[in-house]
Amino acid sequence: MTRRHFFARIGGLSGLAAGSRWAFSPTDARAAGGSFEITRPEAEWRALLSPEQFHVLRQHGTERPWTSPLNKEYRRGTYVCAGCELPLFSSEAKFDSGTGWPSFWAPIEGAIGISVDTSFFMKRTEVHCRRCGGHLGHLFDDGPKPTGLRYCINGVSLKFLPA
User: Fold this and answer.
1) What whole-number distance in Å separates Cα of residue 18 and Cα of residue 119?
2) Which residues of 30-44 are buried (b: 16+ CB within 10 A; e: fewer)?
């Protein structure tokens, strides 16, 4: 087996894993074990959200990097949940991580919840809206001071409200 074939097979297996994660992921955050203040049937979420927002917020998807206009949003303001409009992050905590997704070093106090995500053969910390359970992104420990944390957030899971 050549090196090229080896990596092609690994890529194919990764694609299968990604597809099965998408196909079998819960469409309601409550199915993942949470209890949230705002709950809606799947049909209501689909009517409220765009298809991409639904995929990310309700099915734990990920948007393609560098596609969110919020990467280049530099005005003062607040980033709120696209599902329930709970204020999540202040523009004062936003920084350019160079990863292709909006990144923050801290959320607004009490705005988010976290859980363990073991998809794709990794163990990561998932970040979700504490009020509606919408999947926002992941938390990493390679951020700037003062927290050293990087909340790597899907732009489609947010709305920006200028100050």
Assistant:
1) 8
2) eeeebebeeebeeee
Q: Which of the following is catalytic: 84, 129, 132, 152?
A: 152
Q: Supply the CATH classification number for the domain 3-162.
A: 2.170.150.20
Is residue 152 annotated as a catalytic residue, yes or no? yes
* CB proximity list for 28: less than 8 A, separation 6 or greater: 39, 42, 45, 58, 133
- pLDDT, residue 122, reads 74
CA 60 to CA 56: how far, in whole Å?
A: 5
Q: What is the pLDDT of residue 149?
A: 97
**What does DSSP assign to residue 32?**
G
Q: Which residues pair with 80 in a beta bridge?
A: 87, 159
Amino acid, single-letter form, for residue 58: R
Average pLDDT over residues 43-50: 97
- What's the pTM? 0.78
Q: Which amino acid is located at 107 in the chain?
A: P
Give the separation between CA 127 and CA 2, rounded to whole angstroms.
39
Other C-beta atoms lying within 10 Å of the C-beta of residue 86: 18
What average pLDDT does the segment 76-80 reach? 98
* Structure letter (DSSP) for residue 109: T
